[in-house]
Specification:
Elements: H1 4-11, H2 15-22, H3 32-44, H4 50-56, E1 61-66, H5 70-74, H6 77-92, E2 96-100, H7 102-106, E3 117-121, H8 126-135, E4 139-142, E5 152-156, H9 158-171, E6 177-182, H10 198-209, E7 218-221, H11 225-235, E8 244-247, H12 250-262, E9 272-277, E10 290-294, H13 296-311, E11 320-323, E12 325-328
Parallel strand pairs: 1-2, 1-3, 3-4, 4-5, 5-11, 6-7, 6-8, 8-9, 9-10
Antiparallel strand pairs: 10-12
Length: 336
């Protein structure tokens, strides 16, 4: 592609002269012959102005969809943070985006929305994935990897995070460690009977390897403060209450805090708590919550970058990217 410097060299004039002629600067004091010569050379060299180049840049449109409804998303800062990061970056890079809802995708009301790509946040079942694939083949999954050969995905190292949390509690002297987390979600894919809950699986493996697995102190519901509250209420009815709990999401930990305090127990004097996610409110709880930090902004940034690679045809092989997590030690755990 020809540049102003190329034209200036060919026309034997300065770069600034070429620039002012091409920008139709009428105050420039040059002969009409020089002006015509520069324009003629620019045309021969197929010179394209910056303004024209920008107008030729394709505007991409992507969809952002969560695996749950709008109300549930509003109650989970983890997923909101991911989506807002993606939207902010799209606005910055002049990428159009549409927020889609899973129920409308299932009833086919958005199948003709002409998207270049799709970012799917959360866990999707087989029939839902099939519906997404009919919208576009360029899909990046965040927080799940349903088929790493067919789709791009961005996930976090859950096994490392849970292991670090449990090792921390063990080093503080805790052995009777309870688990509060989400139920395993059924999967309709014929090759899998269920999705793997890596938080629970890692907890079970760790406790088994240390000869401390106890099914009676494993409580499961959904990743909400309400279920964290209810499940902790159940746990506090045990004859022997665990000295510590690993709680698989910070919103659940918030609910658990309320149940513990209502029952007259203190954190961490009576019960130590570790959460997972490090949502914004975690540091403002009383006491501040020790938790495993998931870098949600980096997840959103990585997913958008990977999707644009795929849309622009820069590769054909799918990517599965595993992002690190970090244990954030605060005040909710005590040595015993």
């Amino acid at each position: 592609m020809a540049t102003i410097k190329d034209i200036a060299s060919e026309a034997n004039v300065s770069i600034s002269t070429v620039s002012r002629i091409l920008n139709l600067d009428k105050s420039l004091n040059v002969s009409e012959d020089t002006r015509k010569r520069v324009l003629s050379i620019a045309e021969e060299m197929n010179y394209i102005t910056i303004k024209e180049r920008k107008s030729k840049i394709k505007n991409y449109t992507i969809g952002i969809v969560c695996s749950f409804d709008e109300e549930k998303e509003l109650n989970d800062p983890y997923f909101i943070s991911i989506r807002m990061t993606i939207e902010k970056l799209c606005s910055k890079d002049n990428i159009d985006y549409k927020t889609l809802y899973l129920d409308k995708i299932i009833d086919n009301s958005v199948k003709h929305c002409n998207l270049d790509g799709l970012i799917a946040i959360g866990i999707f079942q087989g029939d839902e994935i099939e519906k997404l694939s009919k919208i576009t083949k360029n899909i990046v999954f965040i927080d799940s990897s349903p088929d790493e050969w067919e789709f791009d995905s961005v996930v976090v190292d859950l096994k490392y995070g849970v292991t670090k949390a449990l090792e921390y509690l063990y080093n503080l002297g805790h052995r009777n460690i309870g688990y509060i987390g989400a139920k395993v979600i059924p999967h309709s894919n014929k090759d899998h009977n269920e999705l793997i809950n890596y938080r629970e699986v890692t907890y079970r493996d760790f406790m088994t390897n240390n000869n401390n697995l106890d099914e009676s102190i494993i409580f499961k519901g959904s990743f909400t403060p309400e279920d964290g509250y209810k499940l902790m209420q159940e746990a506090l009815e045990l004859r022997k209450i665990p000295t510590a709990f690993f709680i698989a999401s910070d919103p659940m930990a918030i609910g658990a805090y309320k149940a513990i305090q209502e029952k007259g127990y203190k954190i961490p004097e009576d019960i130590s708590i570790i959460g997972f996610d490090d949502i914004a409110t975690a540091q403002f709880l009383t006491p501040s919550l020790t938790t495993v930090k998931v870098f949600t902004d980096f997840m959103g940034e990585t997913a958008l970058s990977v999707l644009m690679e795929k849309i622009k045809g820069e590769r054909t092989l799918s990517k599965k990217i595993l992002l690190p997590v970090k244990l954030i030690i605060r005040d909710s755990c005590k040595e015993i």
